[in-house]
TrEMBL record:
InterPro entries per UniProt: DUF6596 (IPR046531), RNA_pol_sigma-70_dom (IPR014284), RNA_pol_sigma70_r2 (IPR007627), RNA_pol_sigma70_r4_t2 (IPR013249), RNA_pol_sigma_r2 (IPR013325), RNA_pol_sigma_r3/r4-like (IPR013324), WH-like_DNA-bd_sf (IPR036388)
Single biological process term from Gene Ontology: DNA-templated transcription initiation
Name under which the protein is recorded: RNA polymerase sigma factor
Organism: Ramlibacter cellulosilyticus
GO molecular function: DNA binding; sigma factor activity
Domain RNA polymerase sigma-70 region: 19-78
Lineage: Bacteria, Pseudomonadati, Pseudomonadota, Betaproteobacteria, Burkholderiales
Superkingdom assignment: Bacteria
Domain RNA polymerase sigma factor 70 region 4 type span(s) in chain numbering: 122-173
Residue span(s) of domain DUF6596: 191-292
């Protein structure tokens, strides 16, 4: 019985923890304190629910427990500050927010309020004052509901390292006095880029793991997709949010076809497209259309989603519109120039115009410092050389790529391709 109750608590926590922390952070104006109060509410559930049973509305129960602890925290803080006169007014206003345990559902206005709180939490957890690693860890903890152990396992990092990142991140936010708010105007655009970057970094690590023995970490990709969908609901008029969701939906649609029964990678050209998820494809195309209607067709994520859409629309690998993909990569290079984008354009040009045209672009990239340790540069070069019949050069390039690969499955794939030559 207790086991089933604990499983129910874990499931509710994964779904509701972000909303709970978001609401408590608005009350206490400190993300770190809010998370501690939310954890206290979770401990209370672990104490009461096994004895009393899971309540009819577990989300409201947790919210009530958390808010009561927030009120206690505010009382103590006010008393310590000696602000007795302000105490009554402030707490009276805050107590109006506490939902009784027996309430079955939150009304629409309160749901909108919680949506605003979640948006504030996302922008706070992804604040540029934090390092990228800290933003990723804090976002997964606060918004993904993942434990420190789960984050450490996913990124193959010692658990104490992740714990330190999260503690330092919360301390940095508190010391920098980062306001708990959704930015406006130009600041919104600047900060939104940071939020989307974090979500896509999490997705990419799930889609193709940088290290370890697994080609993918689906649970991370699913968390990123969940965060992206949440963000699209909260910032529905921001085209790049829909562009990112479109990109993740379309890429996630291929995940079942990306490995064989033994977990070995299957490259795009060799995948069984009948295993691509049609629902995710439809959702991705709909999100891409939404981004375009909002004027974001040339956004960085929307352009990448448009490339993914070209693959999704091709029933067979041979039907892929590589000229269109090469043109889209050209647009992407104009909007967000980078050596990696140019390398991807080289692949598309090689497919559209022949391997010699693609190789010419790749060879120009060999002097790029940013690609010096990037395994996909010699990998792409090896493929193009093989198509040109230059097998010995191709084999050497693929062996170089295998040497640079950090993921065990990826290394195995590259070595196998080298051996086949």
């Amino acid at each position: 019985m207790h086991s089933a109750t604990h499983q129910a608590i874990a499931a509710v926590w994964r779904i509701e923890s972000a909303r709970l922390v978001a609401v408590l952070a608005r009350m206490v104006r400190d993300v770190g304190v809010a998370e501690e109060l939310a954890q206290d509410a979770l401990v209370s559930a672990l104490e009461h629910w096994p004895r009393e049973g899971v309540p009819d509305n577990p989300a409201a129960w947790l919210m009530t427990a958390g808010k009561r602890r927030a009120l206690d925290h505010l009382r103590r803080a006010k008393m310590q500050d000696g602000k007795h006169e302000e105490l009554g007014h402030d707490l009276e206003a805050q107590e109006a927010l506490v939902v009784p345990d027996f309430v079955d559902a939150l009304d629409a206005a309160r749901q909108d309020e919680i949506g605003d709180d979640l948006l504030r939490l996302i922008f706070t957890a992804c604040h540029p004052v934090l390092s990228t690693d800290a933003r990723v860890a804090l976002t997964l903890k606060l918004l993904g509901g993942l434990t420190t152990h789960e984050i450490a396992r996913a990124y193959l990092v010692p658990e104490p390292t992740i714990a330190q990142r999260i503690v330092r991140a919360k301390r940095t936010l508190a010391e920098a006095k980062i306001p708990y708010e959704t930015p406006r105007g130009e600041e919104l655009e600047r900060r939104l880029a940071s939020v989307l970057e974090v979500v896509y970094l999490v997705f990419n690590e799930g889609y193709t793991a940088t290290a370890g023995d697994d080609w993918m970490r689906p649970e991370l990709a699913q968390e990123a997709l969940r965060l992206g969908r949440m963000l699209a609901g909260l910032a529905s008029e921001e085209p790049e949010v829909h562009g990112l969701v479109a990109l993740m939906e379309l890429q996630a649609s291929r995940m079942a076809a990306r490995t064989d029964a033994e977990g070995r990678p299957i490259l795009l050209a060799d995948q069984d497209r009948g295993r691509w998820d049609p629902l995710l494809v439809r959702r991705g195309l709909a999100a891409l259309e939404r981004a375009a209607k909002l004027g974001g067709a040339r956004g960085v994520y929307a352009l990448q989603a448009a490339i993914a859409a070209c693959h999704a629309r091709a029933r067979r690998s041979g039907d892929t519109d590589w000229k269109r993909i090469a043109a889209l990569y050209g647009e992407l290079a104009a909007v967000a120039p980078s050596p990696v984008v140019e390398l991807n354009r080289a692949v598309a040009v090689g497919m559209a115009e022949g391997p010699a045209a693609g190789l010419a672009i790749v060879d120009r990239l060999r002097s790029e410092p940013a690609l010096r340790r990037y395994q996909w540069l010699p990998s792409v070069r090896g493929d193009l050389l093989a198509k040109l019949g230059r097998k010995e050069e191709a084999r050497e390039a693929l062996l170089e790529a295998a040497e640079l690969a950090g993921n065990g499955r990826e290394k195995e794939l590259l070595l196998q391709r080298a051996r086949s030559l």
